[in-house]
């Protein structure tokens, strides 16, 4: 692992430097962009950017690239859909997919696309409701008010999603209203071998040679949706030093956390996460050796685990970097010194850091039970998740909206039901393996004498419990889930399904530890983080960007290489390098379609490139656009140095890695003969040459 030398600015203490920042659309630094790049985005320009960029509800970003609902995202963001549509006889992950006609486009079982259409600042409303409240009363009131605002916003319309977004750790609150598309259909996907060429060894590295792209289409009333706010394709592609914008949905950053929170992450939670992921990777790797079908059905799980493991290693290394951590300590000390120097500010804010530190100490005592009983590390299974959702829905839905667990409020119900009743396949053999692993970890971490472990396992082994509840469950049948959901608590209590019985058995314990966490830790951290944020506002103003929250943001930057270990890294790779990089053995084996097309591909075509845009996980699938709102690339990764970006940003080495727009066109035309997609991206395109190799249709 390369050492991360993140020389970040004192985050939160001074205005963001260089190209740093994942900015909200209603607080974008227009003047700063003009000062550095000579272009000042107007609010109208930003609005078009916002409407063209969309969010995939599962945790990625995407964009409209035609007026007829065509959406571009990463292959790895659509892997779930591609895997779910595959069978042992027709493996679209391995062979690719191309719908030659609209009628051949296949509906994804559980994909949702969200387009942000409205932002409302509701900070004053929530501050007024929670004024002078603390602890559980503060937390309960805040959740109730948030649910009330979300419910009023969506007004029972399934085509609308409303999310109350917490910004600046509670310093501000915005209500985001989305247009929801739940009928999403697969149009084109290349083979996994080229979409993730280089595999885990090349992940978070550069130079790269990936065609990590997939096209889907959103439908309304069984017809392609009309999407007038889309990005046109650039005729020239990305050029060195060109100004670039990345609109997307960065998942989470932790740049504004207190030192107490960062220390807990560095010393406690991150090492435990790394150990868990490492062992889970070993389990899935061994499962794949059982046979080709086992490899196929678990490939998406392994991809996610390996990606999370490598990302977590990079983040942990950033926190272990003494120079970097010292900048975080210095920033907090400087802020606290300014607060203490002002009697009025001291009275309002000085105690916040100590309260957060106490809450982190409490979290340490709750960590194991919270992780293994409530957060799923101890009972990990798709079937169990379905059973627990059914059990909790029966308890929560009869309650007043504001009194429910947040995931069951009215605004979240359309997405919850879509997932609950998804026809996506569930594989019993993989379920047993996952559940056996997690139950084994439950026993290891909590100990055989723990009452919860005794309750779950009794005299059985983890494998015996897993086998019994998976093989005996009928929850693979969507109709069975629907019947239990419709029947409510009475039907669930009477159910003989062993997975439902397991969920009923453990839910009281899980709820109890969750309540203790929310009352004693979460509420304290939220309230006092809000005070820290307000202290920053009072001292430094509101010219800062908030931490990422998997809500729409936009970053700016430019196409630019960097220096690593004394060597200059050029900003572009070429398609010819893809073939030079190939060895014929996984994960450096090209698919047959590419091998056959090598002589017709223009080798000098840019393949991947890097920019100084500030991104984080969740930005995968984001478009890279120029100042004319034209597609010049598709974000799919960051370099290894960017992994510390959760905690800080260093423009000298942090880079966004993207597929070049020219490479996408070259591949669609010369490798796949995907005329229909080409015509949508570039209306009036010249006739494509004879097809060399098609992915499976």
Automatic annotation (TrEMBL):
Keywords: Aminopeptidase, Hydrolase, Protease, Serine protease, Signal
EC number: 3.4.14.-
GO BP terms, alphabetized: peptide catabolic process; proteolysis
SUPFAM superfamilies in the record: Trypsin-like serine proteases
Family annotation (InterPro entries): Pep_S46, Peptidase_S1_PA, Peptidase_S1_PA_chymotrypsin
GO molecular function, one term: dipeptidyl-peptidase activity
Record's signal peptide: 1-18
Record-linked Pfam families: Peptidase_S46
Entry function: Catalyzes the removal of dipeptides from the N-terminus of oligopeptides.
Sequence similarity: Belongs to the peptidase S46 family.
Name the UniProt record assigns to this protein: Dipeptidyl-peptidase
Lineage: Bacteria, Pseudomonadati, Myxococcota, Myxococcia, Myxococcales
């Amino acid at each position: 692992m390369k050492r991360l030398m993140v020389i970040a600015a004192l985050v939160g203490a001074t205005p963001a430097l260089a190209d740093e920042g994942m900015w909200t659309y209603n607080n974008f630094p227009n003047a700063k962009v003009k000062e550095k790049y000579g272009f000042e985005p107007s609010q109208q320009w930003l609005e078009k950017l916002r409407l063209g960029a969309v969010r995939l509800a599962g945790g990625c970003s995407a964009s409209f690239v035609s007026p007829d609902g065509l959406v571009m995202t990463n292959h790895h963001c659509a892997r779930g859909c591609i895997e779910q549509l595959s069978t042992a006889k027709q493996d679209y992950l391995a062979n690719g997919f191309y719908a030659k006609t609209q009628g051949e486009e296949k509906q994804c079982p559980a994909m949702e696309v969200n387009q942000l259409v409205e932002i409302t600042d509701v900070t004053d409303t929530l501050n007024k409701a929670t004024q002078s409240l603390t602890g559980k009363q503060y937390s309960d009131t805040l959740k109730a008010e948030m649910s009330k605002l979300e419910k009023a916003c969506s007004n029972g319309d399934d085509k609308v999603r409303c999310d109350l977004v917490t910004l600046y750790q509670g310093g501000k609150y915005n209500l985001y209203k989305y247009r929801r598309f739940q009928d999403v259909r697969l149009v084109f996907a290349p083979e996994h071998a080229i979409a993730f060429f280089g595999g885990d060894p090349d992940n978070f590295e550069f130079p790269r040679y990936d065609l990590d792209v997939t096209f889907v289409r959103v439908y309304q009333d069984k017809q392609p949706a009309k999407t007038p706010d889309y990005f046109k394709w650039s005729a020239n592609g990305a050029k060195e030093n060109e100004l670039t914008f990345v609109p997307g949905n960065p998942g989470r950053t932790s740049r504004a956390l207190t030192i107490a929170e960062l220390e807990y992450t560095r010393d406690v939670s991150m090492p435990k996460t790394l150990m868990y992921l490492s062992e889970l990777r070993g389990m899935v790797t061994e499962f794949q050796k059982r046979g080709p079908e086992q490899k196929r059905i678990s490939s998406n799980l392994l991809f996610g685990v390996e990606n999370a493991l490598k990302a977590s290693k990079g983040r942990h290394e950033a926190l272990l970097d003494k120079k970097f951590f010292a900048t975080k300590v210095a920033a907090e000390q400087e802020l606290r010194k300014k607060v203490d120097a002002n009697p009025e500010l001291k009275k309002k804010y000085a105690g916040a850091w100590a309260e957060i530190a106490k809450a982190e100490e409490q979290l340490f005592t709750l960590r194991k039970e919270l992780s293994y009983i409530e957060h799923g590390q101890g009972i990990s299974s798709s079937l169990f998740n379905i059973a627990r959702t059914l059990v909790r829905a029966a308890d929560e839905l009869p309650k007043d909206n504001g009194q429910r667990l947040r995931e069951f409020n009215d605004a979240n119900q359309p997405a919850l039901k879509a997932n609950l009743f998804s026809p996506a396949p569930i594989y019993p053999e993989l379920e047993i393996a996952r559940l056996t692993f997690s139950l084994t970890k439950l026993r290891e971490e909590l100990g055989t004498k723990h009452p919860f472990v005794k309750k779950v396992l009794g005299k059985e082994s983890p494998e015996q419990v897993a086998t019994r509840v998976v093989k005996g469950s009928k929850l693979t049948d969507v109709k069975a889930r629907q019947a239990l959901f419709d029947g409510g608590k009475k039907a669930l209590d009477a159910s003989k399904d062993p997975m439902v019985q397991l969920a009923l058995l453990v839910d009281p314990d899980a709820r109890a530890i969750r309540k203790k966490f929310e009352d004693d830790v979460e509420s304290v951290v939220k309230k006092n983080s809000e005070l820290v944020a307000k202290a920053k506002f009072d001292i430094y103003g509101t010219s800062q960007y908030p931490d990422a929250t998997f809500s729409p943001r936009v970053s700016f930057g430019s196409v630019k290489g960097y220096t690593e270990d004394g060597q200059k890294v050029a900003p572009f790779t070429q398609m010819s390098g893809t073939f030079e990089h190939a060895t014929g053995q996984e994960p450096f084996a090209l698919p047959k379609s590419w091998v056959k097309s090598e002589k017709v591909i223009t080798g000098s075509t840019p393949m991947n490139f890097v920019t100084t845009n500030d991104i984080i996980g969740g930005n995968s699938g984001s478009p890279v656009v120029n100042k004319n709102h034209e597609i010049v690339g598709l974000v799919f990764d960051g370099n290894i140095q960017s992994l510390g970006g959760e905690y800080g940003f260093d423009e000298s080495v942090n880079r966004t890695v993207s597929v070049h727009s020219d490479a996408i066109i070259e591949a669609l035309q010369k490798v796949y003969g995907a005329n229909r997609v080409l015509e949508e991206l570039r209306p009036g395109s010249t006739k494509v040459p004879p097809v060399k190799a098609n992915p499976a249709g």
